[in-house]
Request: fold
Amino acid sequence: MSAQLLLVDDEPGLREAVKEYLQESGFSVQTASNAREGWDMMQHSIPDLVISDIMMPQVDGYQFLKQMRDDPRFQALPVVFLTAKGMTGDRIQGYQAGVDAYLPKPFDPDELVAIVENLLVRHTAKTQVASGEDTETMDIAKLAHEISKIKDLLSPRNAITQTPPPFKIDLTPREQSVLNLVAEGLMNKEIARRLETSVRNVEKYVSRLFSKTGTNSRTELVRFALEHGLAK
Reply:
């Protein structure tokens, strides 16, 4: 499943533009127009990361961050500040309050995506160490099981009748390449080696493929691709 992000900003145009870009990058995004609305949303669904403006009416970003850090549920939650304020003193105040990253406006959306991805990876690693679970071993075993099922789907005795996709799907050339290799049953590390890119980039493309096809696993993705002639 894609990471769940909460975006809090009182500027409607910026909020929608950032939301759209993050969704195109494979994230699931909820938005709030102010800190109070964002706080209420967090009571029902805890996000994986929060992106918040600082200069907001009633409750500003610093107060919102303090509210999160005072709650045990959100003490380790990654938080990124988006703000027009770029002075050193303001950044220091943000870091002292417990923010994880600070991005002054205007900003390059690709930089925001890179910051979000980095924070999510670090947060996941810390969580795994704290829990003491051998998550990597579990993930590899799960992936091996999925690949086994994918290869079974690809066998001649399970020939699938192709039908047009139920909705329009536009894949970039790189997404198509990743999809083709996933359909061959390759793991992310193997795909990264084949395409001469990083494993993290492969994970990002696979996440985008899940989002564009409405699937939640590699097995579902390959079945969907085979049924609708998307894998080449």
User: Anything to note?
Assistant: Strands lie at 4-8, 28-32, 49-53, 79-83, 101-104. The first strand starts at residue 4 and ends at 8. The CA atoms of residues 143 and 187 lie 8 Å apart. The mean pLDDT is 84.
